[in-house]
Each structure stands twice: as structure tokens, then as C-alpha cells.
């Protein structure tokens, strides 16, 4: 059997009607949100051509703090998120729903059209 046909234990249990305990489901949701934020910060930083150190200087943080955010190792506070958005010259958009979370930075336009 090829590896692509294997199912994880979790997938098999869910297909058999197993439901996760509420605390496990909540932890999984929090991890997904943290990972979505980490990906959004990384994508915007690299789109600007910034290193973690350069972003840290712009935001008044340490490079280690930026690394922890991009590594999903920390959940930033709202004031810290505001500093990140300003340092990334963008607006931070977070859309939360029961089963999904979308996090994105929308670049500020500087065109005087």
C-alpha cells in the first residue's frame, strides 16, 4: 500500500464517529490560529525583504521575539500586534470562525492616484 493511502490514527477515529475531547479540540484551534499568524508575519516580512532583526528594530522588539512569533511559540498581545502591523507597514486582518481562522497583513498603499 502506498503512503498516500495511509490514514493517521486521528483521521481513522474521526471517520468512525470518534469525537475529540473539548480541551483537545480547543488546543488544536489555538495552534491553528497561532500558526496562521506566524505564516502571515513571515510572508509579509519576506515580501518586504526584511530580516527578523530588521523587523525587530522597526517594531522595537528583539530578534528572538520575532522568531518566537514566526515559530508559533508565543501568542502576542493586541498592543504587540499593533506594533507589528505598523512595522510591517500594513493593516492586520483577522477573521475568526468556528472552524477556521484567516490572518493577513494588507499593505498600506502609498500611491497618490
UniProtKB/TrEMBL annotation:
<dbReference type="InterPro" id="IPR010982">
    <property type="entry name" value="Lambda_DNA-bd_dom_sf"/>
</dbReference>
<protein>
    <submittedName>
        <fullName>Helix-turn-helix transcriptional regulator</fullName>
    </submittedName>
</protein>
<dbReference type="Pfam" id="PF01381">
    <property type="entry name" value="HTH_3"/>
</dbReference>
<dbReference type="GO" id="GO:0003677">
    <property type="term" value="F:DNA binding"/>
</dbReference>
<dbReference type="GO" id="GO:0005829">
    <property type="term" value="C:cytosol"/>
</dbReference>
<feature type="domain" description="HTH cro/C1-type">
    <location>
        <begin position="41"/>
        <end position="95"/>
    </location>
</feature>
<dbReference type="GO" id="GO:0003700">
    <property type="term" value="F:DNA-binding transcription factor activity"/>
</dbReference>
<keyword id="KW-0238">DNA-binding</keyword>
<dbReference type="InterPro" id="IPR050807">
    <property type="entry name" value="TransReg_Diox_bact_type"/>
</dbReference>
<dbReference type="InterPro" id="IPR001387">
    <property type="entry name" value="Cro/C1-type_HTH"/>
</dbReference>
Amino acid at each position: 500500500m502506498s503512503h498516500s493511502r495511509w490514514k493517521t490514527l486521528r483521521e481513522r477515529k474521526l471517520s468512525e464517529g470518534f469525537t475529540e475531547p473539548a480541551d483537545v479540540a480547543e488546543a488544536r484551534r489555538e495552534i491553528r490560529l497561532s500558526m496562521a499568524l506566524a505564516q502571515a508575519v513571515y510572508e509579509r516580512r519576506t515580501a518586504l525583504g526584511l530580516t527578523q532583526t530588521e523587523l525587530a528594530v522597526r517594531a522595537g522588539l528583539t530578534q528572538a521575539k520575532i522568531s518566537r512569533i514566526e515559530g508559533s511559540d508565543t501568542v502576542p498581545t493586541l498592543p504587540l500586534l499593533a506594533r507589528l502591523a505598523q512595522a510591517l507597514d500594513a493593516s492586520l486582518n483577522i477573521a475568526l470562525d468556528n472552524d477556521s481562522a484567516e490572518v493577513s497583513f494588507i499593505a498600506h498603499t502609498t500611491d497618490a492616484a
